[in-house]
Amino acid sequence: MKKIKKRYILTIAIILGVIGFFFYGWYYQNLPEFAMPAISQISSPSATDRILVLAPHPDDETLGAGGYIHQAIQNQATVKVVIVTNGDGERFSASKSFRKVMVKPKDYIQTGNSRQQESTNALKTLGLNEENIIFLGFPDGGLKSLLTKNWTNPYKSNYTKVSVSPYTNSYFPDVSYTGQNLTANLTSIINDFKPTIILTTSSIDLHPDHAALAQFAKNATAGKNIKINYYLIHYRHFPYPKGLVLARNLTPPLRLFLQNQTWQQFELDNQTEQLKLAAINQYQSQLKEPFLKSLMQGFVKKNELFVSI
């Protein structure tokens, strides 16, 4: 009798395990390639467009919108890129560059300088003039805190150990790390540049800095008639497949696609794909880490994705 009961319990456990496995796989898989025609094409940028790209860290602007940036420049649109942090909290990059386990604040600052240069080189590869690149120098890993407890109370970086940008090329120098100041910085840039389109990271991105920047963009554009398109960088099983697979489309996570969101895609021709790859290859500090390399190369596909929430 005990043997029958154990077999019964084991059978139920196996069935539940199989159901759970398939449910997890369905829930976190990406939209199949054959369903991509269901996603509409985003309008190609025109000469009258003024496009502002907001990125939380150096490389996000190229991963999420590198092809769009290049095509906009080719179409004579005016493009400006704002990189909010310098990605100076990247412990692996700092440790690898300086060959030390215990990384000092000055090393993180130097890492930030290096990552700035990588973004500058990548964007120049895409055709953007350096004068149209803005670095704000806000704290890597701190943007979520700036929305809450550090809205007016200055945030101290866990890496550089400062509460004010230590970088000489920050667009607004000597500004303390508060959410209020970041909103004011973005608002000032938007008011001066007068963009018709803003591209930035999404609130559904799993990286706290990325999700926070989406909210800062909303705050800075409140009351303004500016279209915002969001690009996704960090999510489960995204991009799929990772690594360099040029023959595939970038497909949205099925879970997100089925939610009440409007997805659009921007097709890249072969030349633009190769140019985007060349731009990504400028981020050598990130490509040294195998996981990051696979992630970054996974964004070189036949299209780019944007979502309106």
What does this structure look like?
Helix 2 packs across helix 9 and helix 6 (179-193) crosses helix 7. The strands form two sheets. A five-stranded parallel sheet has the order 4-3-2-5-6, sandwiched between helices. The termini are far apart. It has helices spanning 2-28, 60-74, 91-98, 105-125, 143-147, 179-193, 208-220, 254-257, 270-280, 284-287, 290-297, and strands spanning 40-41, 50-55, 78-85, 133-138, 197-201, 227-231, 262-267, 303-308. Helix content is 42%, strand content 14%. The protein is of the alpha/beta class. It has a domain at 48-232 and 269-289: Rossmann fold, CATH 3.40.50. The longest helix has 27 residues, at 2-28.
Strand count, sense and barrel status of the largest sheet are: 5 strands, parallel
Average pLDDT taken over every residue:
91
CATH topology category name of the domain at 48-232 and 269-289: Rossmann fold
Sheet-strand content, in percent, reads 5-15%
- Structural class label: alpha/beta
> What is the 3D form?
globular
Question: In CATH, what is the homologous superfamily of the domain at 48-232 and 269-289?
Answer: LmbE-like
Please provide the ordered H/E string of secondary-structure elements: HEEHEHHEHHEHEHEHHHE
What is the tally of beta strands? Answer: 8
What is the CATH level 1 assignment of the domain at 48-232 and 269-289?
Alpha Beta
**Proportion of residues in helical segments:** 40-55%
